[in-house]
Write a sequence for this structure.
């Protein structure tokens, strides 16, 4: 959890949506960044600091690695894995938009081809 960032953001009366707009990402993706689920990169820290009119040092906290606990139970001989299987990737919004456009184009093509098959069956 990025408590320094959250506190400054709230003190400056910015919403998570405002921050997401600044970074050109979705509000949900920004929320994941504040919760520490997705890394905030140095250029993003600089954009955020500029928007909030504060030095980066006032809002940036060290990234904590997701802790995974591996242990071996000597009594039972069982290997225990405790940790999260969730993997998050920081994919830029423009790539997601590009992929969505491609999906829409393919769906249109499928519909067109289905119509051609129907018309050929009627002959």
């Amino acid at each position: 959890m990025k408590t320094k960032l959250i506190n400054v953001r709230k003190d400056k009366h910015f919403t998570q949506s405002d921050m997401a707009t600044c970074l050109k990402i979705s509000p949900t993706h920004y929320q994941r960044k504040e919760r520490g689920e997705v890394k905030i990169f140095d250029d993003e820290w600089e954009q955020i600091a500029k928007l909030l009119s504060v030095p980066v040092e006032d809002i940036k906290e060290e990234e904590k690695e997701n802790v995974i606990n591996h242990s071996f139970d000597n009594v039972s001989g069982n290997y225990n894995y405790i940790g999260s299987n969730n993997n998050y990737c920081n994919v830029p919004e423009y790539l997601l938009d590009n992929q969505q456009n491609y999906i829409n184009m393919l769906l249109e093509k499928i519909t067109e081809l289905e119509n051609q098959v129907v018309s050929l069956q009627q002959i």
Summary: The two ends are 64 Å apart (CA to CA). Residues 66-73 have pLDDT under 50 and may be disordered.
